[in-house]
Amino acid sequence: MHIPDGFLSPATYLPATAVAAGLIILALKRAELDADRIAGVAAISAFSFVAMLFAIPMPGGTSVHLGGVGLMAVLFGPWTAFGALSLVLLVQALLFGEGGITAYGVHVIAIAFAGTLSAYGIYHFLKRVSESIALFAAGWIGLVVPAVIVAAVLGIQPLIAHDAWGKPLFFPFGLEVTLPSIVIPHLIAGLAEGAVTVMMVRFVKRYFKGVFYAA
Amino acid sequence: MRVFLALFALVSLLGAHDLVHRVFHSECIAVSFAYADQSDFSYQAYELYAPGETIPYQVGRTDKSSSLCFRPTKQGVWTLKAFGEDGHGAAVEITVDEHLALSGYAQPLYEKFQKIFVGLALIFALFCTLYLYKKRRSK
Q1: Cβ of A94 under 8 Å from any chain B Cβ?
Q2: A28 touches chain B (CB under 8 A)
Q3: CA pair distance B63, B74, nearest whole angstrom
């Protein structure tokens, strides 16, 4: 899900970077992160960082990785989760080449913002039905929504940036290729993410009540 | 006629002992060693074993730049053992494909996990800084 440098046109990454910067400034104001909760956020951010580094091979030659997006959103609330995930993505982009620096804005919007917001929303919507189903859905959708956005952003590159003969200047494949090749593996990997979210939230709620976001 | 045959036999024998050579600029696999602090591993002994073999395919010492080269002759996992005179050493498994080209090698544990260790350390350091900042502001 980490897009490298050179795959996105400036017409995509410049506005995305501006939007991401605005969201990060907003998160700095709205995140409810008192000193006592920082250790918990650091621990789950570390879990998210490691989870994003391990690629799971999928049928068809692709691979996916877990992200801990739903887990973050449920445990710490959407804005704190957004801030922490933006930091994890920044460390990955700047130091390890896991995602390009020019693609950082898109990653922040897709993974940190849309991922946490959708996971948090579905958790609150479903938790009246069943806490377990809500957690599972949060984990699943926290992986699938960013995958859909990343696939869409990549897939529209040939339409946005091409030369006079219609040859793509950046990422060459359209939506008919990116949507199935990126989204379908994530629909399956989301099942593992959902299961991990259920287990991890239960574990944290049981043994580390102090770090849990009460809202 | 006898003289001619004798001369022919002599020339053939000379040819059999003549050392011919070819120079390759590809088809070889190069391996470079270094200690974790990037200090060199030059002129150290090594043994290279072909897949399934117990007798070394190649022995020698690393060159001035701590490297060595070999030209694989069969597909499979080649084992390279390097021995430092200070007692340090390494065993590297190098996988060669059906075209006798490099298809992969086992990374050392340090290299494999250094990304995780560095990333985790950095994330915890950033959150520690944030914690100290928040604590100071709350006083």
Answers
A1: no
A2: no
A3: 24
Instruction: Dig out the tokens for A137 from the structure.
Output: 């859905």
Chain A CB contacts of B118 below 8 Å: 95
Cα atoms found within 13 Å of the Cα of residue B47, Cβ hemisphere only = 9
Residue by residue, DSSP assigns B32-78 as E---TT----TT-EEEEE-TT-SS-SEEEE--TTSEEEE---SSEEE
In 3D space, the residue among B92, B115, B116 whose CA is nearest the CA of residue B104 turns out to be B92
Helix A116-126 vs helix A78-96: crossing angle, to nearest 10: 150
Q: What pTM was estimated for this model as a whole?
A: 0.71
Query: For B12-57, how does the pLDDT look when each residue is reduced to its tens digit (9 = 90+)?
Result: 655 566 777 878 777 899 999 887 666 788 888 899 999 999 899 9
- C-alpha span between B43 and B66 (Å, rounded): 7
Tokens (6 digits) for B137 = 């502001």
Residue B126 or residue A98, greater confidence: B126
Reported ipTM: the value is: 0.75
Give strand pairing partners of B61: B45
Q: Does B64 touch chain A (CB under 8 A)?
A: no
Q: Which two tokens stand for residue A62?
A: 């692709």
Backbone torsion region of residue B27, taken as left when φ is above 0, otherwise alpha when ψ lies between -120 and 50, otherwise beta: left
Contacts of A83 in chain B (CB under 8 A): none
Asked if the C-beta of A53 comes within 8 angstroms of chain B's C-beta atoms, the answer is: yes
**Number of Cα atoms under 13 Å in the Cβ half of residue A177:** 10
Measured distance CA(A194)–CA(A212) in Å, rounded: 18
Q: A35 vs B131: CB contact, 8 Å cut-off? A: yes
